[in-house]
């Protein structure tokens, strides 16, 4: 079976970051997802889609859509907040499980530390020491175990720019700090390139730990101008650093072939993180992204 294609509300500028402006209703996003040629989606930030599973499932069923997963950013570095992190992940997980989804896409609460927002894409190595990685790994393992035992869901971890798990080295450290039986990697192709990596190399390096895909492109020319201007992460997104699929540096045929070589036949979530100015642009962009993937066999 070939890799299946879905999308997410972030393509409409629906972000979890404080102060994000939501220009669309859930019904508009769901309608446009279907109209653009998709049959499945991620949930989006808490408070956007209905949190009552009965209401949400009815909205999905009315359009022939399937719920797959949700991006769940939580605080991981501060052990005093680990109970909060678990509670938040379970909150999302209960909705997902009730609607037949299979994955929690866990992440550090990226975008919440001003210095990391400022440095995004311009640092290497790891900011955390061995003791901090042990704390993060313990938190992720605990959440993944509870998500599995209570709800039957799988956990994959999403590296993300403007967070503590951004660079290729930090991604590898996160995987080393977590239990392979509990935690896989959600490879976000655009974020991996933004942070200085190569998505195909990531798949070759981490192999079967890569268990979920976010398909996002990356425009190095936009990043170059942002670096010259010392623009932060949010400004880079506003300028279009995550371009439409096939217009940037990510080798999508190579990514898909590398995943298929691992035996992956799950879902790949099309994401184009945007801060919306033109109200009609997202629907057009997600349709073109879908057409691009069809043009390369997906």
Provide key terms for this protein:
298 residues, alpha/beta, TIM Barrel, 8-stranded parallel β-sheet
- Name the overall outline: globular
End-to-end CA span? 11 Å
Strand numbers in spatial order across the main sheet: 1-8-7-6-5-4-3-2
**The number of domains:** 1
Strand portion? 5-15%
CA gyration radius, whole angstroms:
18 Å
Q: How many H/I helices?
A: 12
What is the SS-derived class?
Answer: alpha/beta
CATH class categorisation: Alpha Beta
Question: So, the CATH homologous superfamily?
Answer: Divalent-metal-dependent TIM barrel enzymes
**CATH fold label:** TIM Barrel
CATH architecture type: Alpha-Beta Barrel
Main β-sheet: number of strands, strand sense, barrel status? 8 strands, parallel
Order of helices and strands: EHEHEHEHHEHEHHEHHHEH
Unreliable residue runs: none
Q: What's the rounded overall pLDDT mean?
A: 95
Oligomer: single chain
Written description of the protein model:
There is one protein chain. By secondary structure, the protein is an alpha/beta fold. The chain has one domain (4-295): Divalent-metal-dependent TIM barrel enzymes (TIM Barrel, Alpha-Beta Barrel). 44% of the residues lie in helices and 14% in strands. Helix 3 (82-98) packs parallel to helix 5 (130-151), helix 5 (130-151) crosses helix 6 (168-177) and helix 8 packs parallel to helix 11 (252-261). It is globular and about 50 Å long. The N and C termini lie close together (11 Å). The model has no long low-confidence stretch (mean pLDDT 95).
